[in-house]
Design a protein that fits this description.
4 domains; about 700 residues; seven-stranded mixed sheet; 23 helices; alpha/beta; binds zinc ion; Rossmann fold
């Protein structure tokens, strides 16, 4: 529409004509256009927003064309993953796609960022400035709302992926997930946030589209790496300007002087050839994206590009990259950054990890699950919630901070429904028999409120009032105090202590929650995991040394000990040992590893780690104020010994069977009756009681 016509429309304002033209517009289908065609026709890069302000030219950065065009309305591709180095144009693809969707009125769209601040800043510093340069696009937005923009044909939401509410409330046909490696690996117990979002688009069947872009982080734990590997894994193939040989730009062939050695004939490839080399087939060049994963779903495309593919003048030079590579070779601290930011590859640093099969050998035959071993003087429990169950670990602590895993249970419940927590409550009120046949109750329990915070908080409020307060539970020896804590793992990579008191934050009434009102205690998960892993390392070392020297190992120096039951060499699913830990226990306990270079604990994607989480919470509960096992005085230990492991008590006294019926919540596992039927492996806890014929 020319300026001339607009002027006439205003002067002649004919209501009927205006209405008719609106109808005409509504009924005209937008032309078949790709995202790159739209960008070439419409996109203006604002000053200060990119290296080259002015009209967008896809030919300037040709590797982006095919990636963008997979996002076109008429493309059958449903998922696009772009694993890339920093500043190679992935965000521009997102802006172009968003502009395209809004301009054509295709449908609603979600742009997801890891956290709220980034969602706001994406809109305010990237998208809005781009829209300002395109008045026709700007005119499509009804109101100037930052995070929710309505346009003819849909709504554009900017959301943040660390909020269950945000993920639940929004659904859209098009979803752009920026920096997916920063999204929560498990949100609301429903799995990784990026997969939950992906499911949103798939509810639109083959019309939904997802674009994920990210600089990858840690190998094995990277969402974009997983997405890339699930797709067709395209690499960008270029021709050698000298011999015409086809190859990718491989960092291994990057020379210190900033040239590449040709893979085919050894020619020297100079950077000034780059723009010619990068031009694509069909657009005046010879380069192309080559799929390397023929097994992929044809509607899942994935692309990898690193900084050497940035257009001349728009990224680091090849010489810069050669220098960065040399620097990373010299200084291992820089290697992870070089991999992630320059190579666009996930980095696998040196791992501090445990071998689950080796650790499983630390289990002690003759020590039975469900029995508190001599020396175990205080019981604490850690509880982790999953979407259909709670997992509980009971740990005994004794003198010198020595600990024993006493029991492990899985209880079916719905964490969102308070009424289903009864079996968990019964379990926590249960007792465990010492080797002397005396029943011990749990002194403190830590319940993870990381997910389903409000329902878990309601449970804690119901049983003890404030988080960390006590209730009285009945044991055959009389009533004992039990503290129940609502806890949450601290997010920081390096916690400097185990126990953090609830933060006294000012909250306005609108945001007041049960969890905040009763107090959420913090768990320094990082430091506690280091403790647990350190103990395992020390125990394995001592065990090896004893074996080498043919000496008897002094087990009493172990800081964390595990029941081994009958000592079966191989787990027999038909005749499971009720005195041993569940078969998968040691796998879950050791599944995480500490990445030295990232300085963080890593849980491999999709892995289960409830055994590690619950032991950490149980140890935490023994250090929290109600027990403070680290400062219990010698006289107090002595009193506990007299109570639970009295020397006067007959060494071979068998516990009376009546005890079990007196305490319905007590542990179901009774290793003194190994002939009893096997407990179902998934319900080692409460449900197993039926199997024992109570
Ligand atoms: Zn060559």
């Amino acid at each position: 529409m020319s300026l001339d016509l607009i002027a006439h429309d205003v002067v002649l304002a004919d209501p009927q004509r205006v209405v008719c033209s609106a109808w005409e517009k509504a009924w005209t289908l937008p032309p078949r256009q790709t995202v790159s065609e739209w960008a070439d026709a419409n996109r203006i890069i604002a000053k200060g927003a990119g290296a080259e302000p002015g009209e967008w030219r896809t030919a300037r950065n040709p590797i982006l064309r095919e990636i963008m065009d997979c996002l076109s309305d008429h493309s059958p591709v449903r998922i696009v993953d772009f694993m890339k180095s920093a500043q190679i144009g992935a965000t521009e693809i997102g802006i172009n796609w968003t502009g395209y969707v809004v301009d054509r009125g295709s449908d609603s769209m979600i742009v997801a960022q890891p956290v709220k601040d980034l969602a706001r800043s994406w809109v305010l510093s990237k998208f809005d400035p781009a829209v300002q340069e395109m008045p026709e696009l700007r005119a499509k937005f009804a109101a100037d709302n930052t995070l929710e923009k309505h346009f003819p044909g849909g709504t554009l939401w900017a959301i943040w992926a660390n909020s269950s509410n945000q993920l639940r409330q929004r659904t859209a046909r098009y979803i752009f997930m920026d920096e997916v490696d920063e999204y929560p690996k498990d949100l609301g117990g429903q799995g990784p946030a990026d997969q939950q979002l992906e499911a949103r688009a798939s509810s639109y069947g083959d019309r939904g589209k997802v674009y994920r872009a990210c600089t990858p982080t840690i190998a094995g734990a990277s969402a974009i790496e997983a997405g890339y590997q699930a797709g067709d894994m395209c690499v960008y193939v270029v021709q050698c300007p000298e011999c015409g040989g086809e190859q990718t730009l491989d960092v291994e062939r990057l020379q210190p002087d900033g040239t590449f050695a040709c893979e085919v004939s050894g020619c020297v490839i100079h950077e000034h050839h780059k723009d010619t080399m990068l031009a694509e087939q069909g657009f005046g060049g010879t380069a192309y994206w080559k799929p390397t994963n023929p097994a992929a779903d044809p509607y899942h495309r994935s692309f990898h590009a690193w900084a050497a593919y940035a257009p001349l003048g728009l990224g680091p030079s090849w010489k810069d990259l050669a220098d960065a590579k040399a620097e990373a070779d010299r200084d291992p601290n820089k290697m992870a950054g070089f991999y992630n930011l320059k190579l666009g590859l996930p980095f696998e640093g040196e791992r501090q990890q445990q071998d689950s099969e080796e650790v499983a050998k630390l289990a002690e035959p003759g020590v039975h699950r469900g029995i508190v071993p001599p020396g175990g003087l205080v019981l604490t429990a850690g509880v982790d919630f999953q979407h259909d169950r709670a997992e509980i670990q009971v740990v005994a602590t004794g003198r010198g901070q020595r600990r024993w895993v006493v029991d492990y249970a899985v209880i079916d419940l719905d964490p969102t429904i308070l009424e289903t927590y009864d079996a968990l409550d019964e379990y926590l009120k249960g007792t465990w028999r010492t080797a002397k046949g005396i029943e011990m109750g749990i002194s403190a329990a830590a319940l993870d409120g990381g997910n389903w915070t409000e329902t878990v908080a309601q449970f804690v409020k119901k049983v003890v009032g404030n988080s960390g307060s006590n209730r009285m539970i009945e044991t055959p020896l009389g009533f004992i105090k039990q503290a129940v804590y609502l806890v949450r793992g601290r997010a920081e990579k390096k916690s400097d202590r185990a126990v953090y008191r609830p933060a006294k934050t000012e909250v306005n009434n609108r945001e007041k929650t049960v969890a905040r009102s009763i107090g959420v205690w913090g768990v320094g998960t990082s430091v506690l995991k280091h403790m647990v892993y350190g103990w395992m390392t020390a125990a394995l070392g001592a065990k090896d040394e004893a074996e080498r020297e043919g000496a008897d190992e002094n087990l009493s120096v172990r800081m964390l000990r595990f029941p081994g039951g009958r000592g079966d060499e191989v787990h027999d699913p038909l005749n499971p040992d009720p005195g041993a830990l569940p078969a998968r226990y040691f796998k879950g306990l050791t599944v995480e590893y500490f990445d030295q270079d990232a300085g963080a604990w890593i849980k491999p994607k999709g892995a289960r780690n409830e055994e590690l989480d619950t032991v950490v919470y149980a140890i935490w509960a023994s250090l929290a104020p109600a027990v403070k096992a680290d400062v219990i005085r010698d006289s107090q230990w002595a009193a506990l010994e007299e109570q639970y492991h009295p020397v006067s008590h007959g060494l071979f006294d068998q516990p009376s069977d009546s005890r079990e019926t007196l305490v319905p919540g007590s542990t179901p596992v009774a290793p003194v009756k190994p002939q009893a039927p096997a407990a179902p492996p998934r319900s080692a806890g409460i449900a197993a009681r039926d199997g024992w014929g109570f």
